[in-house]
Amino acid sequence: MNDDLLFFTEVTLAGLGSGALLALTALAFVLIYKATRVINLAVSEILMLGGYLFFTFAASLSLPWWGALPLAILGGGAVGAIVERGLIRPMLGESAISVFMVTVGLGSVLVGLVEAFWGTDPKSLPNFIANTPVFFGEAYVSRKILVAFIAATVVIGIFLILFRFWRGGVALRATASDQAAAYSCGINVPGVFSIAWIIGCATAAGAGVLLGAIGGISPVMGVFGLSALVVVIVGGLDSLLGALVGGLALGVIQAWVSSFLGGEYVSPITFGILILTLVIRPYGLFGTHEIERL
Amino acid sequence: MSQVSRRSLLQLMGATAMATGVLGGTTLAAFADDSELVIGGSLPLTGVFGFAGVAIEKAMQDYAKIINDQGGIAGRKVRLAYEDTAYKPDTSVAVFNKLTSQNDIHLYYGDSTAFAKTISLELARADRILMGGASFATELNDPVKHPNIFIPGPDYSEMFSILLEHIAREKPGAKVVFVCSDSEFGRDPIEPGAARAKALGLDMGDVIITPPGSVDVSTEVLKLRRARPDYVIFHGYIKAPLPEFMSQAKQLGLETKFMGTFWSMDSSIWDDVGDVADGFMGIMPYRYYYDTEPAPMLDKIREMRGEYQATGYMQGMISAMILLESAKRVLEDGQELTGKNLKAAMNTIKDFDTGGIIGVPFSMAGNSIPVGRVYQYSAAEKKMNPVSDWINVGG
């Protein structure tokens, strides 16, 4: 393989890896939106909280990573349950913008709590993914990025299967399509809401651990969630497949842009894609095209 | 309900306006207090820069205590009046307006480049305040454009110059690559740094810009592998994504030496990174808390605070020192505490001894202190150790 082709292959693989992280974070947005029609902007901060929970279990309490990881994910899920029951459910029937603003406020509260409990210093997570590089032929891939890619695709694959065949998944899809009809079929709609928030927030917490393993943790690491929001809008707010394809595609595009044009072009091109998608296909590449009749 | 005529309403409004003016005047006169010197502060106690703000506040309080224990400045007690800004420029401006309307403030600490640039014109117009701060932006090192502002260390371009001089001495003709974040902070020293590298006979390689908030740096590391530089200078970051950068570069067998600028140089942020951080170098304008060279002010700090104090602490201490030294010179000359007088007094600082916090006496002819030293992190000792003498890049 000549040098240029090798470089292109390596850049593409790196893009797929970082795209998988975007996809996993986007999944948290999609899961909650799909069931409840709420855009939970606090996903970014729950992602950050997941990183800090892992840090506490693995570094402060010295648990092995395989013990700390599920606890961090469960912690994220518990936060999701509390938020849904305490803040979101009482808002049922309120305008979408009011609920959206609650999630914006929740994000600020979580940042404040993290700063109060863990301080404002950036921290590194205990190294639980080996540093040895992986080579596909001659092409180099960072092991952490490879792990993130595998974790994200496996998790999204599991969710795709669950939504298709699991009873709870079908209930969630039914609730997403028509809440009143779902009620009339005996589906516990509030229960579905809770499950969606728990699973969504647990996923975000898991993504936070992977993200923290690569870049460390800090109270502002939730900024990453903004890129994932682009993925969600491009892929489709209610599409799991959209999150996966959108995440991987955006990761690869960002890697190409960064390598061949320069890092300064990444944000303009990312948000250019966002605007273009909103203009051409406002419901996203794989989102449900809703027709509203007056 | 009684009817209020337009005339009586106007009379009422006029009386209210007069009363407000009189009372306002009384308030203005009342807060001009000759018994104290207030240092105002828009401090980033939370948010992305919270780690620095907390340390800066502690240092300024400590220095105020040291001075007050010695009888104050020209008989005036020093007091801090500050509020948290969360490192948001609009909040910083609001805090500035609030604090300066409630206190007689002639000395101020600002938290960011954006705030300094925003408030600079107002400082010049009001001619009441001398301001230091957390920003080392090259743009602020312009006494004509920013007459009421100073930088308590070298600006970012001067930091690059210090690092490049060290490189040129250690390995003449070495290949250097800059890795900077895509932000005003990150881009600050690129052009002057590249020019300086060339002037020093170094081989200036690529400039790699990382997108804001980027976590994975695989693609940037691949670019680095192609460039194979002897040295990389990071700028525009605090910690992330530097450890991942260095980790992946080591995985790829690169023997590049990595360097950073002031805000990446606190040793405590590297303690949990481990071996990857071993050998990381950077520019420090001040001594570290644990430095063993003779430094009476460091002894005093260690006496006041038994545990490690971050680099932000030293920055806050030097800022307070310069602010109060300028005020002292103005008051001792019997002059009024105006912005112009304070700045002129600051510019008379010559061969100033900070008690060892800055390792050599310095002068402040312009807006900055163009002095620094290169330190290197030892993962085994969890310390930054000096690897150069103090380098002065001032004209």
Low-confidence stretches of chain B: 16-30
Look at the structure and give the CATH class of the largest domain in chain B.
Answer: Alpha Beta
The chain pair with the largest interface is:
A-B, 48 and 43 residues
Strand order in the largest sheet of chain A: 1-2
Instruction: Please describe the biggest sheet of chain B, giving its number of strands, its sense, and whether it closes into a barrel.
Output: 8 strands, mixed
* β-strand number of chain A: 2
Q: Total number of helical segments of chain B?
A: 13
CATH superfamily of the largest domain in chain B: Response regulator
**What general outline of chain B do the C-alpha atoms trace?**
globular
Determine the strand fraction of chain B and express it as a percent band: 15-25%
> Span between N and C termini of chain A?
60 Å
Number of domains of chain A: 1
- Going by CATH, the architecture of the largest domain in chain B would be 3-Layer(aba) Sandwich
Radius of gyration of chain B: 24 Å
**Structural class of chain A, please?**
mainly alpha
Q: Main β-sheet of chain A: number of strands, strand sense, barrel status?
A: 2 strands, antiparallel
Order of helices and strands of chain B: HEHEHEHEHEHHEHEHEHEHHHEEE
* Average pLDDT metric of chain B: 90
